[in-house]
Design goal:
The protein has 435 residues and is α/β, with parallel strands linked by helices. The chain has two domains: 282 residues, Acetylglutamate kinase-like (Carbamate kinase, 3-Layer(aba) Sandwich); 147 residues, Aminopeptidase (3-Layer(aba) Sandwich). It is built from 16 helices and 23 strands. The protein has an eight-stranded mixed sheet with strand order 3-8-2-1-11-15-16-14, with helices on both faces. Strands 17-18-19-20-21-23-22 form a seven-stranded mixed sheet, with helices on both faces. It has a two-stranded antiparallel ribbon with strand order 4-7. Helix 8 packs parallel to helix 10. The N terminus is likely disordered. Coenzyme A binds next to strand 20, helix 14, strand 21 and helix 15.
Amino acid sequence: MDEGISSINPTDLRGILNYVPRFLGQTFVISLDGAIIENENLPNLLLDIAVLRSLQINVVIAHGISKQLTELSASRGIKISNADGSGVTDKPTLDLAIRASSRASHQILEALTQSGLKCAITNSVRSTPIGILKGVDFLRSGKVDRIDAEFLSHLISKSIIPIIQPIGFDRNGHTYRINSDLLAIEVAFALKATKTIFITEQDGLEIEGEFAHQLSVEALEAKLTASSGNSGIVEPYLSKAKHALAGVKGGIARIHILNGNIHDGLIREVFSNEGVGTLVYGNEYQQIRQARRSDVARIYNLTSGSVEKEELARRSIESIEHDIKNFYVYEIDGNLVGCVLITRFEDEASTAEINALFVHPLHQRQGIGSKLTNFACLKLKELGVERVLALSTQSVGFFETITGFKESGSDSLPKSRQASYVSQNRKSKIFSKTL
Ligand SMILES: CC(C)(COP(=O)(O)OP(=O)(O)OC[C@H]1O[C@@H](n2cnc3c(N)ncnc32)[C@H](O)[C@@H]1OP(=O)(O)O)[C@@H](O)C(=O)NCCC(=O)NCCS
């Protein structure tokens, strides 16, 4: 039996199938760093891309060439002015970049062909020169003027994966070198892609020496603009961090940065809540905000019907007021339509609970409950929490099937919670999820 197939665990497959409706017909831009194209794991990576395609996810591949360019420079003894397209590109550097680029594209083409996928190297990027910045002429380094989205969409509609080189042409056919991180973001904007996935040699983003698993766009922006002037993010992470920020702010829902050397890494990143790299997330949660004192009565009124039906535990105005900073609310046009409460435990800092999850009946089944739950999990993860609990009497199926929680016994509750669980006597089922 084929080694790749025999290693698939059927329960993984069930997990993947949960994501299929969510990603159906969406476009992912996958950006391969030059170093990854040279890597022996490339065929596995492209096999993962074949899996995405088979699940009706549209894929576009952009790639870099820094490593190839640096190696060509060394082997030919030609000095280059810049390797990654963000600095000055002089004529000899551009010549080597064109060579490096066709070699890299060819390697991708070769590996995609081995995986039985149709693909095409495109000239879909119109470029303009970066020009002169602070007195420095960037010569043949270009920025993106326009992406030919129509052309790319046409290829995608014919099940052809477009391969986009870090090289663009101006209106007169002059060639420019483009930074591949910038390129991937611009392509994603043009195609309204929901994800950009940077595949690199690093495990993800490192901030102040620590690996960041998930970052909200606000957290990343705060790190990058830290008032000290030293953001704590240095190369080789800085370019990815800056472009991830620009991408999410520009409307790409999620940007992933992961290590291309990890076997099955791409699949694990896309089809699991945990992922293997860094996830930068943004506008998906823009309608969720921390509750304010002025929301107390609105939360009380919103949830009271559900309390009567015993879906939610009873909460007085005073207790909502007491916990208000831990409530998050979902607003549509200024109307509060959903809420969730995060509770931490003094005797078990690594565990937290989500309670008072509620979506107004008129707005249910539109993904709001899942967003509130996922948002709460992301927040808690940022706070260092490792395990989230949820207790439910009537939404068992929601936690189990929709949000990936697993039923567990009352011994999974922290000691401080066990007493109230017994005294409330609601006989709620207990669910838990590892973050
Ligand atoms: C549970 C709740 C928050 C879900 O909100 P939502 O915005 O409708 O959730 P989503 O749109 O993200 O997900 C909807 C999916 O969950 C499923 N779902 C919702 N409640 C469910 C339940 N009790 N049992 C099984 N599945 C359920 C829906 O069938 C739907 O599935 P579909 O996408 O296959 O159609 C909402 O139903 C609610 O407020 N319920 C009353 C309060 C409650 O029970 N809260 C939980 C206690 S902490």
